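can u pls check wat happens w/ adenosine-5'-monophosphate-propyl ester
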Amino acid sequence: MPAQTQPAQAIEALLTEVRSFPPNPSFAASANIQDPGVYEAAAADPEAFWASLARELHWFKPFDNILSWTPPHARWFEGGTLNVAYNCLDRHLSGARRNKAAIIFEGEPGDTRVLTYWDLHREVCKFSNVLKQRGVQKGDRVTIYLPMIPEAAIAMLACARIGAAHSVVFGGFSADSLRERIHDSQSTLLITADGGWRRGNIVRLKAAADEALEGNTSIKQVIVVNRTDDPTRVSMHEGRDHWWHRLMEDAPTHCAAEPMESEDLLYILYTSGSTGKPKGIAHTTGGYLTGVYATTKWIFDMKDSDVYWCTADVGWVTGHSYVVYGPLANGATVLMYEGAPDWPKRDRFWSIIEKFGVTILYTAPTAIRAFMKWGTEWPGKHDLSTLRLLGSVGEPINPEAWIWYHKFIGGERCPIVDTWWQTETGSILITPLPALSTTKPGSASRPFPGISADIVNEHGESVGTGNGGFLVLKKPWPSMLRTLWGDDVRYREVYWSRFEKQGYYFAGDGAKTDSDGDYVLLGRVDDVINVAGHRVSTMEVESALVDHPSVAEAACIGRTHEIKGQAISAFVSIKDGIEHSQELQAELKEHVTKKIGAICRPDDIFFAAELPKTRSGKIMRRLLRDIAEGRALGDTTTLADPSVVAALRSQYEDS
Ligand code: PRX
């Protein structure tokens, strides 16, 4: 039934509603997990709980030890060997799934491709052989810099098949960001494409890759997918660069899956932290796959008949866990879309849902807020009646957006799972279970069975129901990061030093529980900004700004933004003798885009003669936040020079 266009009054009523939503009985009757006792059983013996889920996977050799925990290092399912690609592909080939669609792809220009499990297995085996022929060995790292096309999943699975770890770099990152990530991981092979489609334009990935490789010594081979069919615009370096389709022509179709130890590295994924340098989050094999498999099965209620669409790019962890590994380990049909939600028109998502009969949609609040702004006439043009479950991820979902999603996309019948997790956690940790949880707009419900979370004060003491504090995880879980690639000291410091005495993992998020004990996430408590669901380090943006020859000092903060959740405001003091100008503002924004990528581009740049600092020289970001959001200034007594703030505020108001 198409969504209805609502008069303003009705929308207003929706926005103020505070109802809770008990599970839909007809949904619950056939859900994958229906027994509310699962929470208690898992809490009583979390190791046995996880082991029973791990045993649903295929192991070449069963594990003999569930967990060894030497804080802060966990080892899950030791003694066992398995292969992630085998679990995502080969396991599904003997029965009815072999001819089922594994990936349904829609390119931005409207081209489509369907790969059955049989097809995907063949392509992955062939590409595994290509990688081997190009010298990639078990234990090597491979960087993947691709658009959202099936080759991205094929490349990831091929790495997993032969035991090489992948490091996927989001295609929207700049050449500099790619260079830094290649250097840190010491990858030996890079997989990229000539380009990808975005709002009718070609994003030139190969050109950025060439720039990133200048001066690089680790990459020996580059494999280039021909996506945009305009090879003339791509320069190929003799001996180093090879076209994907050429290498695949003669590649053998058989490639045995490498038996991997449960704790062997599966991938590295870089994410922003509160210091400038991105952190290489390291995920291993058996525990990670158990986490993503189990959460996909229970939270998304994944069934063979589903057409599941997670709109994240494979460049982010959501793409790793819930586009590729979790759904394919469940034998699901995964929809992949390459482009923007408003191209060529603002109903592209809804037209895709109608066209392919999507049953499960997993997207981000920032997208939902944009859809709200565009109006209900866009979803209203399409039949969305195939949808049966909706998910949200990446940032807190505001109740207005939740209700809108429920009403206009879910037709008031689909459960919504607001899922909290992080690159570091590997899989969803706080979430409703659709047949068991009474959901409420703005709450991510409760920890997944087997997960031990709490909200604590700065001394690590539980704050109790209804109070706010720091979100912590009290016990190891299978899909947790194992370390930061090449920097275990930083791993200990970032996640484990804050509550060292208690041995808790510090998530970096603030949270509170409501009167039912359900979790409400309150956003980051460190110098990380969440821009449109993407983690941006203020320090990284500041470093990019001070890298510009005109800038003396910079401080960035996240200010509230209607669509993106947060937007970056940069306060910049420029060097003597340089003029403030709109041109310079534009140039600085461009400089950040070039240095890091468009997601880090500041929305506003304010010039300041000086930045407000404490007497010990620390920039008082809290005051900048107050200024940017037009609030009354908080405590200014620790400022070295109070006149700086007054000057800044008047400049801000004038701009
Ligand atoms: O602040 C939390 C926010 O996103 C951060 C993790 O970002 P990243 O590693 O990029 O992974 C994003 C996708 C899992 C968290 O520390 N976050 C994620 N999901 C939610 C959320 N905040 C509130 N509610 C959520 N559902």
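Confidence is low (pLDDT under 50) at residues 1-6.
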